[in-house]
Write a structure and sequence with these properties.
This protein is an all-alpha fold. The chain has five helices and no strands. Keywords: Membrane, Transmembrane, Transmembrane helix.
Length: about 180
């Protein structure tokens, strides 16, 4: 059968293989329950009996599906069932964040970075060098995170629609 890429959604079990496995499970667990009935504890025998009952129920389900006909059996003549596509979700509208909020986010994260470095090498290093190194590594990761977080929600479309938006002059604002 050709793969379509939607197998998890339209998977069907090969019923003859499932029939053989259920029959094997039923026979082996029944034999184990009978052999262990007088020798082992009741709990082990009940576990094997429960597996036998489960295999017997599966055997009955498989036989019923086989008797229903080829619609329920996979094969080259039966195409896979196409999955039902969920309705698309409408995109969320995100308001642009003003520049003051973005600056506050950036300064908060960068302030945390500076405090981590100062605390790591003045307070924590005499106590634990390993902890100071870890704090330094975290502080080294924070600047790119600060830039990313500060850029979230920015109106960078170039349309100039946000409050306080001004297009920067081509000379960079130097007036040359």
């Amino acid at each position: 059968m050709r793969r379509t890429g939607n197998e998890p959604n339209s998977a069907r079990s090969p019923l003859r293989l499932r029939l053989g496995l259920a029959l094997t499970g039923l026979v082996s667990s029944t034999i184990a329950a009978v052999v262990l009935a007088g020798r082992e504890s009741t709990a082990i025998v009940l576990v094997f009996a429960a597996v036998a009952v489960s295999a017997a129920v599966d055997l009955l389900v498989v036989v019923r599906r086989i008797r229903q006909g080829p619609h329920f059996q996979p094969g080259s003549q039966v195409p896979p069932y196409p999955p039902v596509d969920p309705p698309p979700r409408p995109p969320r509208e995100r308001r642009p964040v003003d520049e003051g909020t973005r600056v506050r986010r950036y300064l908060l994260i960068m302030g945390t970075c500076v405090l981590l470095v100062i605390a790591a090498w003045t307070v924590v290093r005499p106590i634990s060098t390993g902890a100071a190194v870890v704090m330094g590594i975290v502080a080294a990761v924070l600047p790119p995170v600060a830039v990313f977080v500060a850029g979230l929600g920015a109106n960078l479309s170039g349309g100039g629609t946000g409050p306080g938006w001004q297009r920067r002059p081509r000379d960079g604002g130097l007036g040359n």
